Amino acid sequence: MHQFLQQIFSGLAAGAVYASLALALVMIYRATDLVNFAQGEMAMFSTYIAWTLVNAGLPFWAAFVITLAVSFVGGMLIERIVIRPVESTSILTAVVVTIGLLLIFNATAGWIYSYTLQEFPSPFPDRTLFGALMTTRDVGVIAVTLVMLAALFCFFRFTATGLAMRAAAQNPESARLSGIRVGRMLALGWGFAAAIGAVAGIMVAPVLFLDPNMMGGVLLYAFTGALLGGITSPVGAVIGGLIVGVTENLVGTYLIASQLKLTVALILIILVLVLKPNGLFGTAVVRRV
Amino acid sequence: MAETLPVDGTAKLALDRESAMVFAAWRWAGTAALIAVAVVLPFTLSNYHVFELTQVMIYAIAVLGLNILTGYNGQISLGHGGFFAAGAYTAAILMYRYGVPYWATLLPAALVCFALGVLFGLPALRFEGPYLALVTLAMAVAMPQLLKYFDNWTGGKQGLVLTKPMPPLELGIDRDRWLYLLVLLVLLIAIRVAANLLNGRTGRAFVAIRDHPIAAAAMGINTARYKTLAFGVSTLFTGVAGALAAIVIGFVAPESFTLFLSLSFLIGSAVGGIATIGGAIVGGFFIEFVPNFANDISDAAPWAIYGLTLLLFMYVMPRGVVGTLGPWLARSMQRFGSARRAAK
Q: Is the dihedral of CA B144, B148, B154, B159 positive or negative?
């Protein structure tokens, strides 16, 4: 029982990271119907920025805030420069462009920082709590994620910009007619997604160690989480990410050796999706014929 | 995908009878000349270049399969590397464990991959867009792990080393050139089959389902049947390409069939033009040669160059090379035809 609870908690901590990245995917999907395959590599690149800053002697949380700001601006620039020109063509073209971005970020990071594993400092002391039930790191990661979610919720719920962004995502034509700069809102969405991804990267780096391929697996789990929750639902993305984290951990501990862990976790989740094709919290898109 | 993608533009031109016949004659002549060049070409090149071109054609067959599914039927797949692997391993296991001659493995590989595709297409009926992408992505990710797991069949991590086929002695050509011609033959058959399928009733049903599933169903098209069929045919092509790859390379291992292979197919498909047949060949060239080209430009970060090249292609020709140039060619032919008529 003790081991079971332990696995649940460490699964939740891993899931919190997946949830953050899943949320970033959902933000971009809601705004542009586009699955951003470069999301993981963007987060990896942000994490390298944080690593550089920490190594330059900045305190951890200062580096954290600066990285978030840089990522936000970087995300907006990517939307403006790279995505905007292909936005009006076809979804597949845009998806392939994000695959191109993925390759560019991965190779550039490898070129600048090399492919060797780097140790990344953890902001949380490594202690166990409640009779070894969970570690402070797990608690810290979950807490950071919760704070971020609360901040995002308040932003989208209570500010004018947040409202405008929701409007632009939901109905671009009407939003434009009521004077919202839809293009700017899309860029903001990419900025937020990049910053959220940066949080995920920084939280996961102390565990996985930093290297340019760090986020490959994480992106897959995040994608799965986003779809499990329903790709149109931010709340669903968070819950989906957490479920994926716990499932992955439990499957790895009790069901099967880690070799096939990923496969089994994916199959389980696809089975759920066969029963609920729009995800747990997603809504079917109704199109006018 | 809501927007309409152009179908091969050359197929439907409003021309008068005479011009149409002239163009048809030119097309035949052009095709015959191209095939002649393709047959003669390996005898003027070094063995290594012949091998590279063989690879190009194998990728082209695989991309053609993906084009049928994604371009014509609108179902996105990130997992075709998995079906490529299935085809390769079917051929490899038949050759390695049962001593089946290499040429006899293509049909079983085709059948196995058709069956796999239909099995996969059934649950895929319930999925759209990103959900289908996830399910197929899972296939691509799971395949290398499964191949490693069932190691008494697949040879596990080490893979299987196959004896390279011998060319028929009476032809008097070496192995590389023989394999090149074999793959060329399969490619030509694949293109012919795909063209017949896609320009006919089945192809129109595929496109109708892609453009408007509800309207297609209302017009009496059995949506489920055609979507499953598209999946099966698509994976059949890709599986045959996989079997050819196993025969030509003479080696299969799980690490050759990573997620990146699946992404490469999608990239090749998009660069060539997803709703075209000729685009598959352009895609094959892109998959085979652009990584080398990127390596020549920059040793340090070749994949960054590859990514940049990809972005450049997508900006200049968002509908792919053939998807952009094809309609342009069709328009100029149309203009030429009208000019001829006016001159009379």
A: positive
Does the domain at residues B9-343 carry the CATH identifier 1.10.3470?
yes
Both tokens assigned to A108 = 């550039």
ipTM above 0.95, yes or no: no
CA–CA min distance B107, chain A (Å): 29
> Which carries the bigger pLDDT value, residue B38 or residue A118?
B38
All residues of chain B having their beta carbon less than 8 Å from the beta carbon of residue A103 are: 303-304, 306-307, 310
- Enumerate the domain spans of chain B: 9-343
Q: How does strand B160-161 pair with strand B251-252? A: antiparallel
| A91 phi and psi angles, rounded to 5 deg | -60, -40
C-alpha distances in Å from residue B74, one per residue of B128, B195, B211, B274? 9, 17, 8, 10
Q: Kindly report the nearest CA distance between residue B315 and chain A, in angstroms.
A: 7
A178 token code pair: 């009521």
Residue B1 has pLDDT above 50, yes or no: no
Q: What is the pLDDT of residue A69?
A: 95
Quickly count: other Cβ atoms within 10 Å of residue B213's Cβ: 17
Average pLDDT over residues A39-55: 92
B321 contacts on A by Cβ (under 8 Å): none
Contact A56, B284 (CB under 8 A): no
Mean pLDDT of the region A199-209 = 88
**Residue B84 CB: number of other CB atoms within 10 A?**
35
The tokens for B159 are 């893979």
Residue boundaries of the structural domains of chain A: 12-213
Across residues B183-201, what is the average pLDDT? Answer: 94
Residues 6 or more apart whose CB falls under 8 angstroms from that of B129 comprise: A33, A91, B1, B76
Query: What's the pLDDT tens digit per position in A63-100?
Result: 999 999 999 999 999 999 988 888 877 778 888 899 89
Place of tokens 């340019």: A212
| B134 token code pair | 């996830």
Determine the distance from the C-alpha atom of residue A69 to the mean position of all C-alpha atoms in its chain, rounded to a whole number.
16
Q: Which residues of B touch A224 (CB under 8 A)?
A: 134
In DSSP terms, B252 is beta-bridged to: B160
Name the more confident of B69 and B156: B69
Q: Which two tokens stand for residue B179?
A: 């394999």
Six-digit token string for B65: 């399969």
How near does any CA of chain A get to the CA of B234, in Å? 18
Neighbours of B167 (CB within 10 A): 16
Are A94 and A87 spatial neighbours (Cβ–Cβ below 8 Å)? Answer: yes
Backbone angles phi, psi at A135, to 5 degrees: -105, 160
Per residue in B306-333, pLDDT tens? 899 999 998 888 888 998 888 888 888 7
Q: Check whether B109 has a pLDDT greater than 90.
A: yes
**Cβ pair B66, B80 in contact under 8 A:** yes
Q: Which two tokens stand for residue A66?
A: 């600066």
Q: Among B123, B130, B270, select the one facing A96 at the smallest CB separation.
A: B270
pTM value is 0.87
